[in-house]
């Protein structure tokens, strides 16, 4: 199995910024405020920062691990657990990537169904969106990276829409500071880290970055930019909504868009949701790409052969989860899995890998 | 599987070579073949000097034959072809007995001279007539200021127009002949030392791989050597301006000229290059930058305005502000069609007008434009078939699509509007986004001679942005675009260009 992809398939190190950042920003931004405010109330914006710092740490760990293994997660698994068990672990991670893609897609379809077309059938819109995903993923990793880049260009300007809400906000809403117990902060931080999920795909696309060790700086900036984005959104939402309102607002960011008023257009959320397609697209594309790549690395199946079955499975998945409760369940299940993967599995892997390499070095010496 | 395919290829090439072997005829057979045509003449002028001359009347310059050939044939003291060739005042005379060479040159306007009828060896005297049109003003890429020369159908004149602007020995001209029947001469121009030879080789390889019977214009070549032949986007620039060709050659690009075609191809190219008119370089950089922006905006407007109208009026009418709503209701009340039908009718009639205008002689074409634009438009609104708001949008969109300086591209822009319309009808605003995603994905996958099409946007090349969406002043253009990976990327010394004197110096 060729570990190192061809030179003309690689992307420049600075694209790590877009890859990390766009993967972290997805449907979560549209409604994460309610969840973090559940425990820490108006202080929850601090959880955005603490959660972010943990992610910085995890990215650092991942880079140390990947640098020492000269490959991706599959190579790390093989180093630690051997070919067979490592393969099983890699497969589990790959399946998790697939579920990540499914969650993002299903939630975006839900947003469409709630906000744009209440009666639209899930299967139709799912089919056409997966068609777009197929078109991008079959173009290879460079095209997947490109959609991440364009997602940043198109999606980031939407942050200026916050200006319209600033006029009606009361910044004193977020005062007094430190009004909650430490456990509250801890729970809020835990909830918040789930929004930062997605960076762990780095473990699979790492070899596709040219001079990957140089990309760490960019990855960290990507995480930082995500923190900034979430922070601005959280503070703005806490200043705009009262805590009572926030409890009943599922899509707080989307509701903020509703108040945008321009001389030629009202109800900006229609435009916003359409542009948001470009924000969720890299999420789905990168995750699906990682699934195909994972299978290729573990089982040596050609990526073009796994792509269609994976998309069909995701399609079936979008049909399986029907209403709000089920979608919420899917979200919380995948979040939980992600939580264990990033907070327990990655550190564990980091330590084990370090130990294994140390022992091996000793044996060789 | 691959082995089989290779086998087939070999078979095919063997067939070809056997086909060529058949054309190996004797000199007599060749003459026989030629005599079948009425415009082939073969005669002996005098008994004393039994030189036989044969040529295609339609291909040679009669003056040359009368003045510079026949007098020397009759006055020549010897019967030897060698001495005769020294006496005739024409250069590049060939003395050969190879039938293939004889056939090729007699068909391109050479005169065959034999010492006596039966002999195999002969002289080939080039006497081709060069009928050509006057060099005229560029029509599709007209510019208000700057040179007003356009390529014509004669290859030599076209090469001359380029070489005149780049009088350096490094400007190389390589010739390839393609087309089984048309035997079209295709030349590849590049500046050695600046160009990346990879680009030249790719282009040369693709052109010599062309298998087609007739190549009548450079646009044939354009379509045949494109990286993705199924894409509606042109992947090489087609220009009729020799100054533009000279400019891109000095950037390190490669140009292709085709005999009989009044336009050149240049590449590798990028999407943004299609929106830069050559006039941008004749105007001051501020103005040029603003015009480029306007053109880009024009393209976006042209593609998106009608689909957005359909999307908003069909699904998202809540988006229209109250003040605007009154105007829209007033113009649309009483229209019997849904927005999509209305939009398609109007878009199609604009396309009809354009097509009619393009096919008719220019005088009549103008009338058609006025009749169609004003009379039909007003009538349609008054009859209550379409709303005047949509009429304004469609007319503006059509206008905006014509701001694209490259004709091929403006056609593409008008074409891709229709899928957008259909998506807008199916999924509203979201449909427009989905269609944009498809188009974006398509453009990301496109390459021009193997170089990414969307550069310098993706992959992002900051240094190349100086001449992409806007044009910075010339002193900032010290480096050639990275896109072509030029062998020599430095245009001029940027240090000297940036030197600034003190106030009183």
TrEMBL record, chain A:
GO terms for cellular component: membrane. One of its GO terms (biological process) is spore germination. Its main location: membrane. It is found in: Membrane. Keywords: Germination, Membrane, Transmembrane, Transmembrane helix, Transport. It comes from the Bacteria. The chain crosses the membrane at residues 12-32, 44-63, 84-109, 115-137, 144-165, 185-209, 221-241, 270-292, 304-321, 337-357. It is a multi-pass membrane protein. Belongs to the amino acid-polyamine-organocation (APC) superfamily. Spore germination protein (SGP) (TC 2.A.3.9) family. This is Spore gernimation protein GerB. It comes from Fictibacillus enclensis.
UniProtKB/TrEMBL annotation, chain B:
Keywords: Membrane, Transmembrane, Transmembrane helix. Residues 1-22 are annotated as: Disordered. One of its GO terms (biological process) is spore germination. It holds the Pfam family GerA. GO terms for cellular component: plasma membrane. The chain crosses the membrane at residues 296-315, 365-383, 389-408, 420-444. Residues 13-22 have a biased composition (Polar residues). Belongs to the GerABKA family. This is Spore gernimation protein GerA.
């Amino acid at each position: 199995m060729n570990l190192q992809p061809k030179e003309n398939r690689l992307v420049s190190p600075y694209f790590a910024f877009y890859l990390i950042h766009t993967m972290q920003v997805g449907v979560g931004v549209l409604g994460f405020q309610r969840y973090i405010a559940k425990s820490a109330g108006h202080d929850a914006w601090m959880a955005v920062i603490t959660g972010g710092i943990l992610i910085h740490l995890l990215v650092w760990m991942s880079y140390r691990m990947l640098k020492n293994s000269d490959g991706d997660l599959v190579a790390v698994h093989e180093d630690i657990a051997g070919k067979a068990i490592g393969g099983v672990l890699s497969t589990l991670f790959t399946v998790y990537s697939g579920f990540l893609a499914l969650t993002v897609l299903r939630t975006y379809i839900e947003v469409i169904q709630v906000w744009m077309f209440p009666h639209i059938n899930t299967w139709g819109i799912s089919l056409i969106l997966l068609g777009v995903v197929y078109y991008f993923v079959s173009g290879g990793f460079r095209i997947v990276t490109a959609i991440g880049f364009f997602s940043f260009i198109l999606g980031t300007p939407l942050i200026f829409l916050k200006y319209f809400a600033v006029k009606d906000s009361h910044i004193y809403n977020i005062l007094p500071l430190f009004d909650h117990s430490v456990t509250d902060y801890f729970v809020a931080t835990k909830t918040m880290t789930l929004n930062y999920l997605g960076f762990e795909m780095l473990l699979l696309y790492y070899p596709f970055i040219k001079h990957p060790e140089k990309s760490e700086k960019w990855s960290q900036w990507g995480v930082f930019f995500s923190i900034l984005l979430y922070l601005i959104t959280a503070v703005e939402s806490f200043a705009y909504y009262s805590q009572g309102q926030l409890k009943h607002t599922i899509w707080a960011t989307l509701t903020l868009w509703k108040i945008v008023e321009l001389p030629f257009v009202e109800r900006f959320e229609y435009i916003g949701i359409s542009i948001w397609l470009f924000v969720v697209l890299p999420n789905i594309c990168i995750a699906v790409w990682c699934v195909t790549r994972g299978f290729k690395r573990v089982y040596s199946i050609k990526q073009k052969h796994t792509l269609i079955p994976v998309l069909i499975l995701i399609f079936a998945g979008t049909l399986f989860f029907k209403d709000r409760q089920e979608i919420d369940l899917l979200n919380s299940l995948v979040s939980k899995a992600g939580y264990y993967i990033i907070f327990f599995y990655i550190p564990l892997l980091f330590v084990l890998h370090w130990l294994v390499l140390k022992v091996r070095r000793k044996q060789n010496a | 599987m691959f082995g089989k395919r290779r086998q087939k290829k070999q078979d095919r090439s063997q067939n070809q070579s056997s086909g060529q072997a058949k054309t190996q005829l004797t000199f007599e057979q060749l003459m026989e073949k030629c005599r079948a045509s009425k415009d082939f003449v073969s005669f002996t002028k005098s008994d004393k000097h039994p030189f036989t001359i044969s040529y295609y009347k339609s291909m040679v310059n009669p003056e040359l034959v009368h003045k510079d050939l026949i007098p020397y044939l009759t006055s020549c003291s010897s019967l030897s072809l060698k001495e005769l060739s020294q006496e005739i005042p024409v250069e590049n005379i060939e003395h050969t007995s190879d039938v293939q060479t004889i056939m090729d040159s007699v068909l391109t306007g050479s005169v065959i001279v034999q010492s006596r009828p039966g002999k195999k060896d002969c002289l080939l005297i080039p006497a081709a007539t060069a009928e050509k049109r006057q060099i005229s003003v560029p029509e599709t890429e007209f510019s208000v200021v700057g040179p007003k020369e356009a390529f014509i159908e004669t290859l030599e004149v076209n090469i001359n127009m380029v070489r005149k602007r780049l009088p350096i020995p490094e400007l190389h001209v390589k010739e390839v002949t393609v087309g089984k029947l048309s035997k079209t001469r295709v030349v590849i121009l590049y500046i050695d030392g600046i160009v990346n030879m990879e680009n030249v080789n790719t282009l040369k390889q693709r052109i010599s791989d062309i298998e087609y019977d007739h190549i009548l214009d450079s646009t044939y070549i354009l379509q045949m050597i494109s990286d993705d032949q199924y894409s509606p986007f042109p992947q090489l620039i087609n220009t009729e301006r020799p100054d533009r060709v000279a400019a891109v050659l000095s950037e390190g690009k490669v140009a292709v000229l085709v005999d009989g075609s009044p336009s050149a191809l240049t590449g590798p190219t990028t999407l943004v290059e299609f929106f830069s008119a050559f006039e941008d370089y004749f105007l001051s950089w501020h103005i040029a930058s603003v015009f480029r922006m306007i053109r880009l905006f024009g393209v976006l407007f042209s593609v998106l305005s009608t689909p957005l109208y359909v999307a908003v009026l069909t699904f998202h009418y809540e988006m229209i502000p109250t003040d605007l709503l009154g105007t829209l209701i007033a113009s649309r009340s009483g229209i019997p069609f849904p927005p999509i039908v209305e939009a398609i009718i109007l878009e199609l009639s604009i396309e009809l007008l354009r097509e009619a205008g393009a096919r008719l002689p220019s005088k009549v074409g103008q009338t058609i434009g006025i009749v169609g634009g004003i009379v039909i438009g007003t009538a349609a609104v008054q009859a209550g078939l379409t709303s005047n708001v949509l009429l304004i949008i469609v007319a503006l969109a059509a206008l905006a699509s014509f701001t694209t300086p490259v004709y091929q591209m403006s056609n593409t822009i008008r074409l891709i509007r229709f899928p957008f319309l259909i998506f807008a009808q199916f999924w509203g605003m979201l449909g427009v986004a989905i269609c944009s995603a498809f188009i974006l994905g398509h453009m990301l996958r496109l390459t021009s001679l193997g170089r990414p099409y969307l550069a310098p946007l993706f992959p992002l090349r900051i240094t190349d942005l100086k001449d992409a969406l806007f044009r910075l002043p010339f002193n900032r253009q010290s480096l050639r675009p990275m896109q072509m990976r030029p062998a020599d990327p430095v245009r001029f010394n940027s240090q000297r260009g940036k030197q600034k004197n003190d106030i009183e110096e």
